[in-house]
Write a structure and sequence with these properties.
The structure is a single chain. By secondary structure, the chain is an alpha/beta fold. It has a single domain, classed as Divalent-metal-dependent TIM barrel enzymes (TIM Barrel, Alpha-Beta Barrel), CATH 3.20.20. The protein has twelve helices and eleven strands. The strands form two sheets. It has an eight-stranded parallel β-sheet. Strands 8-9-11 form a three-stranded antiparallel β-sheet. Helix 7 links the parallel strand 5 and strand 6. The longest helix has 22 residues. The protein is globular and about 55 Å long.
């Protein structure tokens, strides 16, 4: 186990206290369970085609035999008032499911910021209140997406604006007992940039939502991404990835767990060392290919400081892969129904795979 200072011990104790029963750990030699198990669940975005609200998501989690659920979109709640949110919390508790709550961009200058919730600070405050009422120890937020790297001032300016929003609600978050988990999202933040954001905002109330799939969009091997973010992790949104060399650089495809190139036994063993007690949430967003045109000079306009740390490990990850075809809906089948079946299949195979490695309820 890595050494922990006093503040880090208190930090982990607060998270573990939100649901210590059933939390898990793996031995350093592999994914064999020791005294406890890691909570296992899914991110509702993985089954977005279903259009489910919170009660339906909770019932699906119970059906899959998971003990955690990441509702990463406030639209999944019919109301954000305290009483109805508490009813959702009670429903989840009755099914043995712990809730983690999330929302989207809190960077007011991000291309992804949606003003429908008011200002960025108002959205963050709303999310904190909903998370508290839902009994969630965390609120997931994002900066934006990869296109923000090309905005005026670049990603450093967007980090500054996000930090300002976070600091504006520090007292509210601390009083509510809710940690803010900033995700490495859609190519916006390299893991080391996210570490800098967290440190600048304040580790006393800000940490990371670790997204293994988004790591490849910022030119990172998912294991290296975890090594950087693990000590800051509060929650996760995980999926497998495949990558291979292609005409303009590297093409990547997200997959169900166990169907890509990530060594999940090593990954979960590393999680046990760096962030014990943090749940595994499956967020499969698979079936399409994306080329990262790293061979073209203009690609690097989004990276003015040059190739990020860990880039060589990412290239090695890509060299180990082989091309894959994207998913297509079967000919003659309704596209919506096909997408719903595809998404549920990905999640259900992923949950089964993770359980085979010792995660989830006994």
């Amino acid at each position: 186990m890595v050494g922990l200072n006093g503040s880090r011990r208190r930090f982990l104790a607060q998270i573990a206290g939100a649901g210590a029963a059933g939390l898990g750990m793996f031995s350093a030699r592999g994914a064999q369970p020791t005294a406890r198990r890691t909570r296992l669940g899914f991110d509702n975005f993985a089954v977005r085609a279903m259009g489910w609200k919170a009660p339906e998501l909770i019932e699906y989690a119970a059906k899959l035999g998971t003990d955690s659920l990441f509702i990463s979109d406030l639209d999944a709640f019919e109301s954000h008032e305290e009483a109805p949110v508490k009813r959702v919390r009670d429903l989840a508790a009755g099914r043995g499911v712990q809730l983690h709550i999330g929302t989207w961009s809190i960077c007011p200058t991000s291309k992804r910021f949606n003003p429908k919730w008011g200002t960025a600070a108002e959205l963050l405050a709303l999310g904190i209140r909903v998370a508290r009422a839902a009994g969630s120890p965390v609120l997931r937020v994002v900066l934006g997406g990869g296109d923000d790297r090309l905005t005026e001032g670049g990603i450093n300016a967007r980090i500054k604006d996000t930090v300002a929003t976070l600091k504006s609600q520090r007292s509210l978050a601390r009083d509510a007992g809710v940690k803010i988990a900033v995700e490495n999202h859609a190519g916006d933040l390299h893991s080391l940039e996210l570490v800098r954001l967290i440190e600048e905002a304040g580790r006393d109330f800000v940490g990371a939502n670790v997204d293994s799939g988004n790591a490849v969009w910022t030119l990172e091997d998912p294991l290296v991404n975890l090594e950087n973010l693990g000590p800051y992790a509060l929650t996760t949104s995980l999926r497998d990835s495949a990558a291979w060399e292609s005409g303009n650089g590297v093409t990547v495809q997200w997959t169900a767990m166990g169907e890509g190139q990530v060594d999940w036994k090593r990954y979960f063993a590393k999680m046990a060392q760096l962030c014990p007690g943090v749940p595994v949430h499956i967020e499969t967003i698979s079936g399409f290919n994306r080329e990262l045109a790293v061979s073209k000079p203009e690609f690097w306009n989004a990276w003015p400081a040059g190739k990020p740390k860990g880039y060589e490990q990412f290239l090695a990850f890509a060299k180990a892969g082989k091309p894959r075809d994207p998913w297509k809906a079967p000919v003659g089948k309704d596209a919506k129904i096909a997408s719903q079946e595809y998404q549920r299949g990905d999640v259900e195979r992923s949950i089964k795979y993770c359980k085979s490695l010792g995660l989830g309820p006994r």
